[in-house]
Amino acid sequence: MANELRPCPCDIGDRFDYEGCGQEVQVEHIKAYVCKPPASTDKAVIVVHDIFGWQLPNTRYMADMLAANGYIAICPDFFAGREAWKPSDDWSKFDDWLKTRDARKINKEADAVLKYLKEQCGAKKLGVVGFCWGGIAVRHLMMTYLELKAGVSLYGLIKDSDDISNLLNPTFFIFAEKDDFIPLHQVTLLEQKLKKNCKVDFEVKIYPGQTHGFVHRRREDINPQDKPYIEEGRKDMISWLNKYI
């Protein structure tokens, strides 16, 4: 039930000491971080940040990883200029903070980013990945935008009432076995609903022994037994995109 009471709590995990290879750009009313691959491409992936915002080095690390794998990667500020959450903030005020940052009310930002990718970057094949808060956003976007050909939702919080069976294109769901905020019964329920009603390809995968944020907020070298799963999660994310974009 903790998940229902606190709809998007996160451990900060490891904040990478990472500068990023891309650049910041203005996209209509929001800012975004963009990293392009060495070779020209018409494939692009939108990277949706977690509660710690678009400037978190870890998320830029993920965007740069996607660029290294041949995608134009863009991480927009889906909070549209409002403050990201900080680990030092008062968690008792988190729910009020989150009410003004609904991961399902980002169409204005998504429209601007899609237009930018098509008109400024020449992108024709589009996908989306997102972490925690961004994982919820991915589910919303994959039910809203037919042009997004593949989605990867990483440990996006689930409520028992959530039904995302009307996904428009293939979506991959990554969860951690020991996630304090996403009970496994909710993952099971999600998978049952998808199997029953979903018309497109999907996969739900639980990574043994891992905790919330493991793909983007765990350093590979921090714990030897975790390293294979961190690397597997990242590889799976890219393989899904490669398959459908």
From TrEMBL:
Gene3D superfamilies: alpha/beta hydrolase
GO (cellular component) term, any one: cytosol
Location relative to the cell: Cytoplasm, Cytosol
UniProt-listed InterPro entries: AB_hydrolase_fold, CMBL, Dienelactn_hydro
Keywords assigned by UniProt, alphabetized: Cytoplasm, Hydrolase
Entry keyword annotation includes Membrane: no
GO terms for MF: hydrolase activity
Keyword check for Transcription: no
Main location: cytoplasm
Residues of the Dienelactone hydrolase domain: 30-244
Annotated family: Belongs to the dienelactone hydrolase family.
Protein name: Carboxymethylenebutenolidase homolog
Organism: Balaeniceps rex
Source organism phylogeny: Eukaryota, Metazoa, Chordata, Craniata, Vertebrata
